C-alpha cells in the first residue's frame, strides 16, 4: 500500500537522467555511482526498486516506522501486472545496527559501500536474477581481527499486503512461520491476490546456521506484517562468512507454490546462485549448497590405488634396468 518509494523512484530517476547535464561524472560505463535509487530488471519481466535511504525511525527491525534514515532496502517490486510486493524489504541489521552504504549499480546487481559494524567489515549486494522472478541478497561479514566475533544478523521484509497479509504455506507443511521453515509464502488473499504473492526464503539445504528466532511482526509501514529472521553467526578470526536470502514474487498462489521447492536444496550449479564465485557460495552460512553429481568416493579411491600400483611397478622396473 505504501507508494512513497515509487514516487521517490520516479523523482530520483529523473534527477539521475539530468545528472550528466549538470556535470555529474559517472563511474564506469553502465554504473551509476553513487545514487539513492535504481531499478533492476529480473526474470519474468519483474522490476525491483533498490534504495540506500530506507531506514526505520528507531533504527531497529521492529517497534518503529519505515522511511527514515540511511539503510539499504529493496523498497518495492512489481510483476508486469501486480505492484506493491514490499513496503521496504530485504533489509539487514548486524548486532541491531542498520546495514547501508552508498549504492552502485552494475547490470542487474546493486552493491552497497562496505561499513564497519561491531568490528566486522559488512557489505551487502542485491541481484535481480535473470532466470526467475527472484531477487537475492548477499550479506558478507569479514573479520580482520585476531579473535572470532559473534553477532546476531537480522533479515526483514515488510509486506505490501499490509494488514491483509496471510501466510498460505511454509516449507514445514503448515501455515505457521517457524524457525524450521526454509521458505514461507504470503499474499493478501487466499484465492485472488491483488498484490504480488511473496515467497521469502530464510535458509536452504542443511546449513551451518538457521534462524534462531522468526517473527511476522516487523517495523510499521502502512502495517507491521512481514517476515523477520535472526541468525546468530560467528565470524572466525581472519575469516569471511555470508548470509543470503531470496524474495520471489508471483502473480498467482499456484505459481508461488509450484516454485517453492526449488529453494529447498540448492546445488552449486543452481541458477539461484548465478554470479557468485565458488568461495562466495561456500561462505554462505544459511544455505547448505550440495555439490553437483560426482564420481562416487569408492570409485575414485579405486583409481588412486590403481595409479599408485602402476607407479610402484614403474619404479621397480626402472631399478631392475639400472642393476642389469
Ligand atoms: Ca509498497
Ligand atoms: Ca506494509
Ligand atoms: Ca511452518
Task: Kindly describe this structure.
The protein is an alpha+beta fold and 324 residues long. It folds into two domains: 4-283, Beta-galactosidase, Chain A, domain 5 (Distorted Sandwich), CATH 2.70.98; 297-324. It has four helices and 18 strands. It has helices at 4-18, 253-260, 278-283, 297-323; strands at residues 31-35, 37-42, 46-51, 73-78, 91-94, 97-98, 103-106, 109-112, 115-117, 120-128, 134-142, 149-158, 166-170, 183-187, 197-201, 213-221, 223-235, 240-250. Strands 1, 7, 8, 9, 10, 11, 13, 14, 15 and 18 form a ten-stranded antiparallel beta sheet that branches. A hairpin with a 2-residue loop joins strand 9 and strand 10 (120-128). The longest helix is centred in the C-terminal third of the chain and has 27 residues, at 297-323. The chain is globular. 44% of the residues are buried. It binds calcium ion (3 copies). One calcium ion binds next to loops.
Amino acid at each position: 500500500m505504501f507508494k512513497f518509494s515509487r514516487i521517490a523512484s520516479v523523482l530520483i530517476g529523473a534527477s539521475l537522467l539530468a545528472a550528466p547535464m549538470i556535470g555529474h561524472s559517472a563511474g564506469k560505463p553502465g554504473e551509476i555511482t553513487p545514487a539513492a535509487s535504481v531499478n533492476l530488471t529480473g526474470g519474468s519481466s519483474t522490476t525491483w526498486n533498490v534504495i540506500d535511504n530506507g531506514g526505520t525511525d528507531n533504527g531497529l527491525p521492529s517497534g518503529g516506522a519505515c522511511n527514515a534514515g540511511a539503510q539499504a532496502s529493496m523498497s518495492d517490486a512489481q510483476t508486469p501486472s501486480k505492484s506493491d510486493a514490499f513496503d521496504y524489504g530485504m533489509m539487514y541489521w548486524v548486532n541491531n545496527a542498520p546495514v547501508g552504504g552508498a549504492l552502485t549499480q552494475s547490470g542487474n546487481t546493486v552493491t552497497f559501500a562496505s561499513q564497519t559494524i561491531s568490528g566486522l567489515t559488512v557489505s551487502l549486494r542485491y541481484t535481480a536474477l535473470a532466470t526467475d522472478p527472484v531477487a537475492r541478497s548477499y550479506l558478507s561479514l569479514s573479520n580482520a581481527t585476531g579473535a572470532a566475533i559473534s553477532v546476531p544478523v537480522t533479515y526483514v521484509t515488510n509486506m505490501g499486503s499490509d494488514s491483509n497479509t496471510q501466510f498460505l504455506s511454509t516449507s514445514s507443511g503448515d501455515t505457521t512461520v517457524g524457525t524450521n521453515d526454509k521458505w514461507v509464502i504470503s499474499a493478501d488473499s487466499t484465492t485472488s491476490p491483488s498484490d504480488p504473492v511473496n515467497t521469502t526464503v530464510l535458509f536452504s539445504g542443511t546449513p551451518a546456521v538457521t534462524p534462531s528466532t522468526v517473527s511476522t511482526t516487523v517495523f510499521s509501514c502502512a502495517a507491521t506484517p512481514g517476515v523477520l529472521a535472526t541468525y546468530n553467526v560467528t565470524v572466525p578470526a581472519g575469516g569471511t562468512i555470508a548470509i543470503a536470502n531470496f524474495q520471489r514474487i508471483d502473480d498467482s498462489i499456484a505459481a508461488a507454490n509450484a516454485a517453492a521447492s526449488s529453494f529447498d536444496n540448492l546445488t552449486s550449479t543452481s541458477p539461484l546462485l548465478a554470479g557468485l564465485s565458488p568461495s562466495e557460495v561456500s561462505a554462505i552460512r544459511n544455505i547448505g549448497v550440495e555439490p553437483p553429481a560426482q564420481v562416487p568416493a569408492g570409485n575414485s579411491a579405486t583409481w588412486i590405488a590403481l595409479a599408485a600400483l602402476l607407479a610402484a611397478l614403474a619404479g621397480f622396473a626402472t631399478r631392475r634396468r639400472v642393476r642389469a
